[in-house]
Predict the structure.
Amino acid sequence: MLRAALARDEDSAKPQPKQEAEAAAAAGLAAVAQYLHHLGLVQQLLQMLTALGPPPKPKQQQQRELEQQQGQSPPPQQEPQPQHQQPYAGYRADVVAVLSNILLGGRQVQGAVMSAGGIELLLNNCNLDDTAPMAREWALWGIRNACKDNEAVQQYVSQFQAVDAVQTPELDRMGVQLELDQMTHKLKLTKKPDGQVDVTVDKDE
C-alpha cells in the first residue's frame, strides 16, 4: 500500500506541459515522503532492516567457497546460520522499496537516513537475496535517491570501497569472471579460459 502511495501516477495527472507536470509530481511525492518521515516511518523501516540482517549469500556461492576451502572436495553438511525469518517471501524487498521511495523526500529525509546508518543498510542490501530478488534493485534505487542533488551524501557514499567480488551463476553461464583489483578497488570482468563455462543446473529447479 505504501509502495503504491509513493509511486508516481502520471496517467492520472491533468494534461499540462511536461516540465510542469514532472515538477508537480515531484513536489507531491516529496510532500508525502516528508510527512511519512515526520510520522517516524523512516526510523521504523531502518529498525526492520537491521533486524533482518544482511542478505544471506546465494546457495551456489556458499558451495563454491566451501569447495575452495576444502580443495575442491565435496562440501560438508553444515547447520545454516541463524537468520531472522521473513514474514513472507519478498518482505525484504518491500521494506527496502518503501525506504528507497521515501528518500525522494529531499535533503531532510536524505540526511536523516544517512545519520541513522541507512546508507550502509542499503549498500548491504545490494547483495542478491534468493528469498527476495528484487531487494537488490530497490536498494540500488535507494542509493540513487539518497545521492540525488545532495553532495554530502555523494561524498559519504564515495568513501566506501569494494572488498570482494561475488561470482554469480549468471556470470558463470556467460563464461566470464568478476575480479576485484586490490590496488584500485575497482571491479573488472575477464573471460574464463576455454572450457570453463558453467552450465550446471540447480537441483531444486
Summary: The longest helix spans residues 18-38. The radius of gyration is 20 Å. The longest strand covers residues 176-180.
